[in-house]
Give the backbone structure.
Amino acid sequence: MSEEITKEIEDLPGVGPATAEKLRSASITDLMEIAVSSPSELAELADISESLAAKAIRGAREAADVGGFETGDVIFQRRKSLKKLTTNSSKLDELLGGGLETGSITELYGAFASGKTQLMHQLCVNVQLKEDEGGLGRETVYIDTENTFRPERVSQMALALGMDPSEVLKRIHVARAFNSNHQMLLMDSVSDLSKECSIGILIVDSLTAHFRAEYAGRGALANRQQKLNKYMHSLLRFGDLNSCVIAVTNQVQAQPDAFFGDPTRPIGGHIVGHTATYRVYLRRSKGEHRIARLVDSPCLPEGEAIFRITQEGVGD
Ligand code: GTP
Ligand code: MG
């Protein structure tokens, strides 16, 4: 290990023991977290001036070796180390290029009962499978904003995969978020938790429900989008730092002026759309069948897959 990697926060220019302490109490314990902060954000968190914050960020960027250019082959090598988490439906996995990718945000949006929460429950279980079984052999964090997490459902899915339900449930860390502010604050607890256990997936079900309810009306839209943007970036940063999957759900809203095509679109518009790497639109089909449509992805073709939701969970 090089000397730079072991560098502590207090070794940064302009950061003494007192500032380091403030940063730690704001849950910033990692050079990389400082390196990817903005000066105003860091200044606010650590209660220091913006110029001091900018100095610390520059130091952290050098130490953590970020911000420079990389050649395509280096990025290609790194992308090869990304892992895929199975959905338990081979068709859906194929649509996603093998499953949900670590280090990215996958957004699943659709109307009520389209299967978003069911799929999230399935991922809670699958992430605990070994890598050669399509899992990551790691634990789950589940941010539940709608009070729809059901351990009973997890147990059914775990049993169907031959796993011990009580052991599986012990590795799922669930937090209720009571409003959008609380939801954002929970990221601090999630960071703390990630130091104690290896988190393979962070689920937010639903990403937008609180934001939508609290910031109603045209006048509140800019504020809502700004908060959502900040939140999306904190999710992305967490996924990057921990090499884990980020899966979020989103509702759709009716588009009053849509005469053609699908009359629905996801909440949060471009802000959510641009930060989520993969967007999947779910809709109901006959009975237990569901249709997933890959809407937006940097390197996969658009397409559709049909899967099923049964007592045993998600499957083909
Ligand atoms: P909202 O959160 O309301 O927007 O919907 P959602 O997309 O999260 O829906 P959810 O994933 O909760 O899907 C609910 C649907 O899943 C139900 O209407 C059922 O059709 C199906 N479902 C849930 N549990 C079971 C089960 O045990 N067996 C079967 N066959 N289907 C189930
Ligand atoms: Mg739901």
User: Anything to note?
Assistant: Residues 1-6 have pLDDT under 50 and may be disordered. Residues 159 and 165 are 6 Å apart (CA to CA). The longest strand covers residues 289-296. The pocket of magnesium ion (ligand 2) is lined by residues 116-117, 146, 148, 205 (CB under 6 Å).
